[in-house]
Design a protein that fits this description.
Layout (H helix, E strand, L loop, with lengths): L3 H30 L10 H24 L3 H14 L2
Amino acid sequence: MVTTTAVGVAVRALLMVLFCVMVVAFAYLFAIDGFISCFNFGDRWGIAILMEFSVYPAVIGAWVFYKESSWIQAAIFAVSMYVLGR
């Protein structure tokens, strides 16, 4: 039987590992590719980031407006999603 504490420790350990992977990936990006390429949105990863921040929230927001019964709650959720991120 798995306890709540064990699950919490496992999730915390997973998040620490993912954080370390992210730090290594950014270090590799800055060391190999150079810092200036981070601002070139013509690269493939730049296009992916633009899609992440523009198209995906619009699709999810439209789905929320479709499924939610209250327009006010849907609007609050959609605005908070755009402001705080997906």
